[in-house]
């Protein structure tokens, strides 16, 4: 029998073919691990809900006895070797979600821990919906709560919710202020630099813009009368559906920005819009905007050009306090 040289046998396997095989098998294993983890986590959510429900029933049976519930939880924590805080969370979890069918398989137990800490039912339901729609991680959920997304999107006591059966309304999609704190830029003087970092952080950028946005390109070239122009950022919103042109401007809003944006929109409407799409929309994002300046500059263009501010970092508590103090002094001086 002829001996086979192991080295020769190995060399017959092309590195590129083996790498594809290895990555495919690795992907299969990772998917199985993820599904297994999700299945275990879903079982944990169900079990913790049942524990919370059982404790509530026990408390109701002995509601006439002072501190009965507290004593039971302390004893359970000791005998089951649970952290007492975790049992209280299970109790809170059941009280926040008393109907088991309202639980969502897309949400992990850690998601629910954070959601249960939100006191307002409307806010809790809003963030729960956003997790499912945008596939938020726990970290992203915490970030959006910290940025007060619910409060920022709340208008006249009603949360803006897009009806799936209808086209989205632009005025309900674009915000008055965008938070770019993820940029981590000390120098915000150059538009191109800000734009470059935004594109490098495209995942965070799209999360800040919201559902149904996708980035179509940067510095898109258009030619008008043999003059070359470049569009800062081109997005697409599939819920409207239309192209969204975004201009990033450093400093205070200037009325000439509107003329430039309107020119780009007219070009896109004539040259790049499909028949089934709605007219393109422009979004100018600057550091600061004067309400009157924006209103008079836009005129009847308000339905297709929006102006917003961006914040590169959240103000500290001290900065907020100082600003409020100055505002009060200014108001007091104006009265005198």
How would you characterize the overall build of this protein?
- This protein is an alpha/beta fold.
- It has 2 domains: 15-62 and 69-97 and 108-151, no CATH class; 168-318, Trna Endonuclease, Chain: A, domain 1.
- The protein has 13 helices and 8 strands.
- Strands 3-8-7-6-5-4 form a 6-stranded mixed beta sheet.
- Helix 11 links the parallel strand 6 (242-252) and strand 7.
- Helix 2 (15-61) packs antiparallel against helix 3 and helix 2 (15-61) crosses helix 4 (84-96).
CATH fold-type name of the largest domain: Trna Endonuclease, Chain: A, domain 1
| Order of neighbouring strands in the sheet with most strands | 3-8-7-6-5-4
Number of strands: 8
The helix content, as a percent range, equals 40-55%
Largest sheet: 6 strands, mixed
Shape: extended
The radius of gyration computed from the alpha-carbon positions, rounded to a whole number of angstroms, is: 27 Å
Order of helices and strands: HHHHHHHHEEEHHEEEHEHEH
Number of helices, where a helix is a run of at least 4 consecutive DSSP H or I residues: 13
Low-confidence regions: 6-10, 161-165
What is the first-to-last residue Cα distance?
109 Å
Q: How many domains comprise the coordinates?
A: 2
Query: What is the averaged pLDDT score?
Result: 79
Oligomer designation: single chain
What is the top-level CATH class of the largest domain?
Answer: Alpha Beta
SS strand fraction: 15-25%
CATH-derived architecture of the largest domain: 3-Layer(aba) Sandwich
Report the structural category.
alpha/beta
């Amino acid at each position: 029998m002829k001996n086979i040289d192991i080295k020769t046998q190995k060399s017959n396997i092309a590195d590129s073919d083996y790498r594809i095989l290895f990555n495919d098998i690795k992907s299969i294993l990772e998917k199985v691990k993820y599904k297994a983890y999700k299945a275990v986590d879903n079982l944990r959510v169900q079990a913790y809900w049942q524990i919370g429900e059982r404790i509530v029933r026990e408390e109701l049976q002995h509601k006439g006895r002072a501190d009965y519930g507290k004593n039971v939880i302390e004893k359970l924590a000791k005998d089951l070797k649970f952290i007492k805080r975790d049992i209280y969370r299970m109790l809170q979890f059941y009280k926040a979600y008393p109907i088991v069918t309202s639980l969502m398989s897309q949400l992990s137990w850690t998601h629910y821990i954070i959601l249960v800490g939100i006191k307002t039912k409307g806010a809790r339901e809003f963030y729960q919906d956003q997790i499912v729609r945008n596939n938020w991680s726990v970290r992203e959920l915490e970030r959006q709560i910290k940025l007060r997304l619910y409060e920022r999107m709340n208008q006249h006591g009603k949360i803006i919710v897009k009806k799936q059966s209808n086209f989205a309304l632009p005025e309900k999609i674009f915000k008055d202020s965008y938070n770019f704190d993820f940029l981590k830029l000390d120098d915000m003087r150059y538009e191109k630099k800000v734009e470059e970092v935004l594109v490098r952080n495209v995942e965070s950028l799209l999360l800040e813009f919201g559902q149904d946005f996708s980035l179509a390109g940067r510095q898109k070239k258009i030619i008008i009368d043999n003059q070359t122009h470049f569009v800062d950022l081109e997005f697409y919103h599939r819920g409207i559906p239309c192209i969204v042109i975004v201009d990033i401007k450093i400093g205070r809003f200037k009325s000439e920005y509107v003329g430039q944006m309107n020119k780009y929109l007219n070009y896109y409407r004539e040259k790049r819009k499909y028949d089934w799409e709605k007219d393109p929309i422009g979004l100018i994002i600057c550091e600061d905007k004067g309400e009157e300046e924006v209103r008079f500059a836009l005129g009847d263009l308000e339905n297709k050009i929006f102006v917003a501010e961006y914040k590169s970092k959240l103000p500290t508590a001290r900065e907020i306090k100082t600003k409020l103090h100055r505002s009060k002094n200014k108001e007091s001086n104006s009265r005198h």
